[in-house]
Amino acid sequence: xxxxxxxxxxxxxxxxxxxxxxxxxxxxxxxxxxxxxxxxxxxxxxxxxxxxxxxxxxxxxxxxxxxxxxxxxxxxxxxxxxxxxxxxxxxxxxxxxxxxxxxxxxxxxxxxxxxxxxxxxxxxxxxxxxxxxxxxxxxxxxxxxxxxxxxxxxxxxxxxxxxxxxxxxxxxxxxxxxxxxxxxxxxxxxxxxxxxxxxxxxxxxxxxxxxxxxxxxxxxxxxxxxxxxxxxxxxxxxxxxxxxxxxxxxxxxxxxxxxxxxxxxxxxxxxxxxxxxxxxxxxxxxxxxxxxxxxxxxxxx
Length: 301
Hints:
Elements: H1 21-27, H2 30-33, E1 39-42, H3 49-57, E2 62-67, H4 70-81, H5 83-98, H6 102-118, H7 126-139, H8 168-177, E3 181-185, H9 188-191, E4 199-203, H10 226-241, E5 245-251, H11 262-266, E6 271-279, E7 289-297
Parallel strand pairs: 1-2, 1-4, 2-3, 4-5
Antiparallel strand pairs: 5-7, 6-7
Helix pairs in contact: 4-7, 4-8, 5-7, 6-7
């Protein structure tokens, strides 16, 4: 954990927590800052902003990063275990992409997307597909990660003039930082079956949509609806009884409906804090800007 380079998220992520880190740090349990927590678990890995923040500070001795999305986990494992090979693929993709004009770049994007989708499950092309995933993530519309019901990446081309496809310095730092992390493809309930004391868990599940037309609950084949939110709350309450430190982020329904008490009722008795976040993904530009997000903890300070 004594990295001189600070690792940062290498995937763009809708609702990623990089912008909120200053506020989230204020809400970390004091025991984490004092060395009283030995294990950190992140069951919804996604972009991993909080994971990398914890790693860079060297707060804990053990980290477990999990996600149910097989593509995301395969990508993290490739960065950790086969960085040099992955970097070679990314350099090639970046070189070929920047040699093209805008129309040709669009064609190239869809060709890479088709290759990525058609080679799902090919164990001999895992590293190549991970490079393709990073490329698609950096060049697609709004940096979204979205899969259809068949598990295919279906986000359209993003038309960026100069996207950072291969950030060599950061990706190398990420590879080194992940060397001490257990990375697993599991449902959140499975990864939290056996949690010991002196553990801090941060949950960043797919957010409950603020409206019927703003659903980002499916970034894998699995839909994370209100029933899944309730299942997560049940796990949160069980681990609270075991004395585990927990922090959870989610959308604030009151941004759209002041009478929607879904999370106040679901997490009654826990500490609920509203923090300001920038919402950049909305087809209506007038609805972009600062909104509230919820941070729910089972401790105070």
